[in-house]
Each structure stands twice: as structure tokens, then as C-alpha cells.
Design goal:
Layout: H1 2-17, E1 19-20, E2 23-24, H2 25-32, E3 34-39, E4 42-47, H3 48-51, H4 58-64, H5 66-71, E5 79-81, H6 85-97, H7 108-118, H8 121-142, E6 143-153, H9 157-162, E7 169-178, E8 187-198, H10 206-210
Parallel strand pairs: 3-5
Antiparallel strand pairs: 1-2, 3-4, 6-8, 7-8
């Protein structure tokens, strides 16, 4: 009985010892995981677990590098980072939940610059892919082809082709046989010409570009 009582007392003492200032050791440890960042004068509150989602990032290193910890704090103990706080927000939120959400007032190139600074490789790859897809989509919408079919006699063909200018390109020459006049034995040709219409031009009327083709 004495042995059991002594064991019970020891367990109770151990349990009581885990409580410090109203927090258990686990709660105290979790509390220590919170980190404050002073980014360009704006304070952000997050955890070491969030900052270390990418273990090779700058944000993870500042949590573990003792030299950085001692030299990069403000008077409140927050880590000092001289970067734009507006562009830091989408970077931090990406680390929190793995989704890239960019405010409409921000540009993707700016977020990419921050992701590269903080050395978050997965976010850098994601942003570069989005910018590449955006550029390809813009490029495809930027141009359209305008076509024109010209008819020419055989003796005028060379001169007709030489008049293609101002961006017009000969796509195909088709021999359609002799003309309608029985007095003329020359062959007739159809010339298929194309022009690449740029949507950045203020006047996108196809007639504007068709008129650039000088006929003989």
C-alpha cells in the first residue's frame, strides 16, 4: 500500500510540474512557435511551421539561424525584412494553405519577384507557369490573318507579285487556265495573299490593310 501511495504521489508531482504560469509544457511550446515579422513596417503574425513549408527558403532560415535571429529584430522582437508588405501577403498566404491568391491591385510579376527573394521554389515555378500561359494567350489574341484573292494574266503575274508590300505575303499561286477572251491565249492566275492583323493597331478595319496592297 505504501508503495502504491508513493507511486501515486510521484505521478501527481510530475503532472503538476508540467504546468507553468497557467500553461502546460505543450501549450508553452506551441506558444513559442509563433513568429512576428516586420515587413516594410507592417507586422505579420504567423508560425515557424508555416514559414518552414519550404525548408530551403529565406523565411525558414531566419527561424533557425542564430546570427540572423540576433541581428534582424526590431524593438518589439519582430524580424525586420525590408520588402513590400502588400506583395508579401500572397506569399505568406501561399505558405499557409498552398493556394496562390493575388489581389486585383497587384501584378503577378511583383509577386514573382518576392517569391524569388524569399527563395520559395514551388511558388516561383507556379508563377512562371502562369505568366507563360498568360503571355501565350495574349499572343494568340493579338493577331489574326486577313486574306485577299487577286486575279492576274500570265504576263502580269511577276509584276503583281512584286507589288505585295506592307506586310502582305503570297500564300499560293493557282493556274486557272486561259482567260474568257478567245483572242487571248494567256493563262489566268489566282494569287492568295495574307496579312497578319495586329490587334494593338488602333484601326483594326481589314479594309485599311487591304488598301495597302498596290495593284499594277
Amino acid at each position: 500500500v505504501c508503495l502504491m501511495f508513493g507511486l501515486f504521489s510521484l505521478l501527481r508531482m510530475t503532472s503538476d510540474a508540467t504546468v507553468t504560469n497557467g500553461y502546460t509544457k505543450h501549450e508553452t511550446s506551441s506558444k513559442k512557435e509563433w513568429v512576428r515579422l516586420n515587413v516594410g513596417g507592417t507586422t505579420f503574425l504567423t508560425t515557424k511551421q508555416t514559414l518552414c513549408k519550404d525548408p530551403h527558403s529565406f523565411l525558414c532560415r531566419i527561424c533557425h539561424d542564430e546570427q540572423l535571429i540576433d541581428s534582424m529584430r526590431d524593438s518589439t522582437g519582430a524580424f525586420l525584412i525590408d520588402r513590400d508588405p502588400n506583395y508579401f501577403s500572397p506569399v505568406l498566404n501561399y505558405l499557409r494553405h498552398g493556394k496562390l491568391i493575388i489581389d486585383k491591385n497587384l501584378i503577378e510579376e511583383g509577386v514573382l519577384a518576392e517569391a524569388e527573394f524569399y527563395q520559395i521554389s514551388s511558388l516561383v515555378r507556379l508563377l512562371k507557369q502562369k505568366l507563360r500561359e498568360k503571355d501565350e494567350g495574349t499572343q494568340s489574341k493579338r493577331t489574326q490573318q486577313v486574306y485577299r484573292v487577286l486575279q492576274s494574266h500570265e504576263d502580269e503575274l511577276t509584276q503583281m507579285l512584286s507589288t505585295l508590300s506592307d506586310g502582305w505575303k503570297c500564300e499560293q499561286v493557282i493556274n486557272i487556265g486561259s482567260g474568257y477572251s478567245y483572242e487571248c491565249n494567256q493563262s489566268e492566275f489566282l494569287i492568295l495573299a495574307s496579312y497578319q492583323l495586329d490587334s494593338t493597331d488602333n484601326d483594326q478595319s481589314p479594309n485599311k490593310f487591304i488598301n495597302k496592297l498596290q495593284l499594277p
